[in-house]
Write a structure and sequence with these properties.
The chain is mostly helical and 162 residues long. Helices cover 64% and strands 5% of the residues. It has a two-stranded antiparallel ribbon.
């Protein structure tokens, strides 16, 4: 390794000595990792139950998921005065609104976004999970409410199908 940004091996016999900079924690080394895995497992279980009870006859529209996830990120960033989180929420919600407008103009896009397929369900699950986990990691004091709230909303969303 040519850089010593994260660690150095110094001394006789290749004895490990940490560099002056601390290695930033990853998701796996974070104490919120169990909550994130419980959230992911719970969401996969909810998707499996929904697909068993209503086999791929409908899905949440991806544009609605993007708008709601972006609004959640925006609200979390606004309440915490975190401009990075607020801007990412605005970008995600804006992409969702853009797809809403595109869906209204073109039937092909509407069929693509409203498709009831396993890939469509998986993309929606990943988008919701990534938004919730990003909020949980950046605002750790909200971790319990975000985990439970996301699971409740994700479990009950199939009750309100069209």
């Amino acid at each position: 390794m040519k850089t010593d940004r994260f660690f150095e091996i110094k001394g006789h016999g290749g004895v490990y000595q940490p560099a002056s900079k601390v290695i930033t924690p990853t998701v796996v080394s974070n104490y919120l990792y169990p909550q994130l895995m419980m959230l992911l497992i719970g969401m996969v279980a909810g998707l499996s139950v929904r697909n068993h009870m209503h086999p791929r006859s409908w899905s949440l529209p991806l544009d609605l998921i993007a708008v709601c996830s972006g609004a959640a990120l925006f609200a979390g960033g606004y309440l915490q005065h975190n401009t990075e989180l607020t801007s990412k929420g605005m970008i995600l919600a804006g992409a969702g609104f853009g797809t809403v407008l595109a869906r209204e103009r073109d039937q092909r896009i509407e069929r693509l976004l409203m498709r009831g397929s396993p890939i469509h369900d998986f993309i929606g699950l990943i988008l919701i999970f990534m938004s919730a986990s990003y909020l949980i990691l950046l605002i750790p004091e909200w971790n319990f409410m975000l985990t439970v709230g996301t699971l409740i909303v994700y479990y009950t969303q199939w009750l309100f199908k069209k």
